[in-house]
Amino acid sequence: MTNNMSDLIDNYQQVMARIQTATELAKRVKAPELLAVSKRHDVEKIKALAAIGQVDFGESYAQEGVKKKEQLYEFPLVWHFIGPIQSNKVKLIAPNFDWVHSVDRIKTLQLLNHHRADNQQPLNVLLQLKIGDEPNKSGATYDDVVELAALAENLEGLKLRGLMCIPPASDDFNIQCGFFQEAEVVFGEMVSKYPQVDTLSMGMSGDLDAAIQTGSTLVRVGTDIFGRRPE
Q1: Contact call for residues 97 and 79 (beta carbons, < 8 A)
Q2: Which residues of 27-64 are buried (b: 16+ CB within 10 A; e: fewer)?
Q3: Structure letter (DSSP) for residue 88
Q4: Side-chain half-sphere of 195: how many Cα atoms within 13 Å?
Q5: Which of 82, 88, 113, 187 places its Cα 20 to 30 Å from the Cα of 95?
């Protein structure tokens, strides 16, 4: 194993340990799942992590993600699309990914449903809730999430699984928790209304401890595993 791959494995194990520690501090029985954000990183790194049991990988660029999936077809991996969704990329995203995290418009839901093949399992969908007052940040308002959830429930090609959010960046643990608690409340409402909803995707390298404290079931970690993305 090269030093580069050895460092990758060490980083991964440190992230897993951090997740476990945060879970214990939050007095939670079950730790959240780890989504390894592999965008802009090569397939050899994904293979190395797959070899030690990592299953879920996140990509933000449709063509890059599909190419990696084709190159790694022999591995039983689960592919998540986590980036902004352009309408002209939906026909590539819908049939090739297992999960989509970043749905915040009715048109996107309808297109994903349209392009998911009848012979495929329904596409797992998370609605992106906008947290914090950042004018350039993607995400749906609370009212829009309610509307999107009702629509997703009636689209046969999709399976509504929950929420995703990306709050404003902060180094303050309490501020991070405050943002995540907003999403946790909305998630709780969804769970009570839709029995199949089970996924709250929140927390990244810089704030996963706060996310776990406030109920995240899936953390998305890239930099702390893979290092800085190549340009």
Answers
A1: yes
A2: eeeebbbbbbbbbebebebbebbbeeebebbbbbebee
A3: G
A4: 0
A5: 187
Which residues, including other chains, have CB under 8 Å from residue 166's CB and lie 6 or more apart? 128, 131, 137, 138, 139, 202, 204
Q: State pLDDT tens for residues 146-194.
A: 999 999 999 999 999 999 999 999 999 999 999 999 999 999 999 999 9
pLDDT tens figures, 130-156: 998 777 888 999 999 999 999 999 999
How much is the pTM? 0.96
CA-CA distance, 108 to 105, in Å (whole number)? 5
3-226, which class in CATH? alpha beta
Give the closest residue to 94 by CA, choosing from 114, 77, 119: 114
